[in-house]
C-alpha cells in the first residue's frame, strides 16, 4: 500500500536556512549526522542565492529524532569538583 508508516516514537524535522557557502552546509550536515540525537540526516536542496547583495547558499535538510533512544546529556555525568583551599 502507499500509506505512510506511522512511527510514533520518531520526530521528523525540516530545517531551512542560509549559509555562507557549500562548506558551511556540508559541515552542518556532517555534524548533525555524527550527533547521537539525529538520524536520517538528508540534505534536500542547496542553491546559490543573492539576498540583499550577499551571495549565500539557501538549503533545506531533514532529520529524525528517535524518542525511544536513551540519551544522556554530558552534564548528567558527575564531575569531580576541585577543592579550592
| Radius of gyration, whole Å | 19 Å
The low-pLDDT segments are: none
Backbone structural class: alpha+beta
Q: Main beta sheet, described?
A: 3 strands, antiparallel
Strand neighbour order, sheet with most strands: 1-3-2
Average of pLDDT: 85
Count of distinct strands: 3
* Tally of individual helices: 1
State the share of residues found in helices, binned by percent.
Answer: 10-25%
Principal-axes geometry comes out as flat
The SSE string, one letter per element, is EHEE
Tell me the fraction of residues in β-strands, as a range.
35-45%
- The rounded distance between the terminal residues' Cα atoms is 70 Å
Describe it.
There is one protein chain. This protein is α+β, with helices and mostly antiparallel strands and 85 residues long. 15% of the residues lie in helices and 44% in strands. The protein has 1 helix and 3 strands. It has one helix at residues 22-34, and strands spanning 10-19, 38-51, 54-66. Strand 2 (38-51) and strand 3 form a beta hairpin. The radius of gyration is 19 Å and the shape is flat. The model has no long low-confidence stretch (mean pLDDT 85).
Layout of helices and strands:
Elements (H helix, E strand, L loop, with lengths): L9 E10 L2 H13 L3 E14 L2 E13 L19
Antiparallel strand pairs: 1-3, 2-3
Summarize the structure.
With 85 residues, this protein is an alpha+beta fold.
Tag the structure with descriptive keywords.
85 residues; 3-stranded antiparallel sheet
Amino acid at each position: 500500500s502507499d500509506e505512510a508508516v506511522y512511527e510514533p516514537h520518531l520526530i521528523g524535522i525540516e530545517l531551512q536556512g542560509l549559509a555562507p557557502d557549500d562548506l558551511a552546509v556540508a559541515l552542518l550536515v556532517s555534524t548533525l549526522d555524527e550527533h547521537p540525537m539525529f538520524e536520517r540526516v538528508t540534505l534536500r536542496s542547496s542553491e546559490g542565492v543573492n539576498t540583499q547583495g550577499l551571495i549565500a547558499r539557501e538549503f533545506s535538510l531533514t532529520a529524525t529524532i528517535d524518542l525511544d533512544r536513551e540519551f544522556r546529556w554530558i552534564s548528567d555525568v558527575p564531575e569531580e569538583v576541585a577543592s579550592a583551599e
